[in-house]
From TrEMBL:
Top-level taxon of origin: Bacteria
Molecular-function annotations in GO: DNA binding
Name listed for the protein in its UniProt record: LuxR family transcriptional regulator
Transcription regulation found in the keyword field: yes
Organism annotation: Pseudomonas bharatica CSV86
Protein's GO biological process: regulation of DNA-templated transcription
Pfam families registered for this protein in UniProt: Autoind_bind, GerE
Key words, A-Z: DNA-binding, Transcription, Transcription regulation
Length: 253
């Protein structure tokens, strides 16, 4: 396995896109007994009220065709107990949706998670391994391998491959990291350079008139930039816009 992982590192780094890298990881994951693969990434995992944000990047391999739509458009990501556990975990973990699965998930599942539980049981992907990856500056990613569970042995085999799958996940993340910004979905909030500049000065306590003087622009122009940023952030006023921009790391260089 070590030789295969060394070869994977080389192949991942030569991948021109995240999709190419996922294809290569899927081959290795299949050798470990995982039939399907899910990778997700968010520069900020929680919104300003503490709810899970739909990931900026979601890539799947060998999942049912409706997976992407359910998790990203229908809200399954927000009620996925594996994702909630991953966000608060620093170590990879094995999970099972079977009642006698005997994993950490059995102590966590309740009625809120019923759509996800039923879906994965029907899809015969009720067992898996998830690797949480907490990134610099607050970013968050997970790689999950899924497989059927027809007996206790299936769960035991997932545990046996936990360490190798974790190495695969971190190899993927290291190779993918430089690609993430350009791979992010268009739904991610994007401020213009001037909007960020105006909000930075607002964060320093300057009024619109003072920002206009600082940037040598008209008050109307500065107000336009600030108002545009407020709308993009769903903020009611400039103070809230600054707070949300800071939360979403939009004012960082």
């Amino acid at each position: 396995m070590q030789a295969k992982l060394a070869d994977l590192d080389h192949r991942l780094l030569s991948g021109r896109s995240l999709d190419e890298q996922m294809d290569r990881v899927a081959d290795v994951a299949a050798d470990l007994g995982f039939e399907a693969l899910v990778y997700d990434y968010s520069p900020v995992p929680l919104d300003h009220v503490g709810e899970l944000i739909t990931p900026a990047i979601l890539r799947v391999r060998n999942t049912p065709q409706d997976w992407q739509d359910l998790w990203c458009a229908e809200g399954y990501y927000q009620i996925d107990p594996v994702q909630h556990l991953a966000l608060t975990s620093i170590s990879p973990f094995v999970w099972s949706y079977q009642p006698k699965g005997d994993t950490i998930l059995q102590r966590f599942i309740d009625s809120r998670h019923a759509p996800v539980v039923g879906y994965l049981q029907d899809a015969q992907l009720a067992c898996g391994v998830t690797v949480p990856i907490h990134l610099p500056r607050g970013g968050f990613a997970t790689l999950t391998g899924l497989r059927p569970q027809t007996s206790r042995r299936d769960l035991d085999e997932a545990r046996e491959h936990l360490a190798d799958f974790s190495l695969v996940a971190h190899a993927l993340q290291e190779a993918a990291y430089p690609l993430l910004d350009k791979e992010c979905s268009p739904q991610v909030i994007r401020l213009t350079r001037r909007e960020r500049e105006c909000l930075r000065w607002a964060a320093e306590g300057l009024t619109a008139a003072q920002i206009a003087e600082q940037l040598n622009r008209s008050l109307a122009t500065i107000s336009l930039h600030l108002t545009s940023a407020m709308h993009k952030l769903g903020a009611r006023n400039r103070v809230q816009a600054v707070a949300r921009a800071v939360h979403y790391r939009l004012l960082e260089d």
